[in-house]
Amino acid sequence: MAKSLKVKYTTGEQLFHAFDVVFVFFVALAVVVPVMNIVFASFSDPGEVMRHKGLFLYPIKPTLLSYELVMKNPRIFTGYVNTIFVVVVGTLLNLVLTLIAAYVLSRKGPRLVKFFTLMIVFTMYFQGGTIPTYLIVHKLGLTGHRASLIIPGAINTFNLIVMRTAMAGVPDSLPESAMMDGAGHVTILSKIMVPLTKSTIAVITLYYAVSHWNSWFPAMIYLRKKAMWPLQLVLREILIQDEASVMTSGSRDSLALDSDAVKYATIVVATVPILCIYPFLQKYFVKGVMVGAVKG
Questions:
Q1: Which of 94, 269, 272, 274 has the highest CB neighbour count under 10 A?
Q2: 30-85 confidence digits (pLDDT tens)
């Protein structure tokens, strides 16, 4: 039985590896500590949260009171419903339009493909801005409707380019053989392109879903009714009300106490669902992004 070979590192390489370990440790610490602070504070007694100074290294007088207050807030429930609607419908629309556009741009046959590709890439670097975008959305009659959170950003240029590059990497012989057998573009896209680029599709699906989940600025601009606000905008209002109560009263009264107590719990409630998706799509990340980034 062959003996395993041990790799001998020089002193410089050993020092470099040690530095890497220490550096990654502190980077991980900088990421984990704020999350632990929020989670532990959300499970702590609201009164102790007000009196405590510094980081929460463990829950102080553990209780679920903060989460009970969150669940009793009707705005949280409606915010969840609105956010889930925008995430599901918006992500589906994003995927359909991105796949269709990427398929067209990845084909070598149609004319002006390079021209349209350059025009699309141009929008990554030069945009009209907030005011022109608002005027367009208003002229289309989308203000005050949930469609204003979905349609204006129906296609992300970066995701489109990644998807287009992934489809361009599929051998031309496959769609050509399918066309010789009588398959149309819809069949080629659904039966060949989508299965062969599922890693990239999984990645951009997560990108679109996270973008919709974290979005609050378009809702603040386009929506007038609070009953239509997504969860992130509801969370922003809770935080602003907390700060406003401190500025007007000079101290944190009972209302501010409640807001401060539910603040951390609301952050956890608003963040955990999207984090639960990552483990299921993590295996596609490296493969999906690299496949869409090597050839272009």
A1: 94
A2: 888 888 888 888 888 777 777 777 778 878 887 887 787 777 777 888 888 899 89
53 and 97 both lie in a single domain: no
Distances 3 to 6, 8, 10, 175 between C-alpha atoms, Å = 9, 15, 22, 49
| 197, 166 Cβ separation under 8 angstroms | yes
Q: Distances from the Cα of 54 to the Cαs of 12, 38, 205, in angstroms?
A: 39, 12, 38
61, 48 contact by CB (below 8 A): yes
Q: For the chain, what is the total number of helices (H) and then of strands (E)?
A: 16, 0
Q: How far apart are the first and last CA of the chain?
A: 46
Last residue of a domain, which of 63, 93, 114?
63
Give residue-wise pLDDT tens across range 213-233.
888 888 888 888 888 888 888
User: Which residue range is the domain that position 150 belongs to?
Assistant: 74-225+278-294
